[in-house]
Design a protein that fits this description.
There is one protein chain. Helix content is about 50%, strand content about 0%. The protein is elongated and about 70 Å long. The model has no long low-confidence stretch (mean pLDDT about 75). The longest helix has 20 residues. It starts with 5 loop residues before the first helix and ends in a 29-residue tail after the last helix. The protein is built from two helices and no strands. By secondary structure, it is mainly α.
Length: about 70
C-alpha cells in the first residue's frame, strides 16, 4: 500500500495515538466514516437542480393573525 510496509504503518498509528489520544480515535474514525459516506452519496447523486417553484399555501393568510385579509396592528 503506497510503498509502505507494516512497520511504517504501525509507526504512523502510534504517532496518531500519541497526538490525538486513545479516547479521541473512535470519534475521529466516526467522523471520517461519515465524511466518506457523504462524499460517496454526493458523487452518486444526480446533478439535477430543482427549479420548479414551491407550492404556496391556498388562500392569502396573514402570518401574524392567521386570518384572511386582516392585518395585525
Amino acid at each position: 500500500m503506497f510503498g509502505m510496509g507494516f512497520g511504517e504503518l504501525v509507526l504512523i498509528l502510534l504517532i496518531v495515538v500519541v497526538v490525538f489520544g486513545a479516547t479521541k480515535l473512535p470519534q475521529l474514525g466516526d467522523g471520517l466514516g461519515r465524511a466518506i459516506k457523504n462524499f460517496k452519496r454526493a458523487v452518486n447523486a444526480s446533478n439535477e437542480i430543482e427549479v420548479a417553484p414551491k407550492a404556496e399555501p391556498k388562500g392569502n393568510l396573514d402570518e401574524a393573525t392567521e386570518q384572511p385579509g386582516k392585518v395585525a396592528k
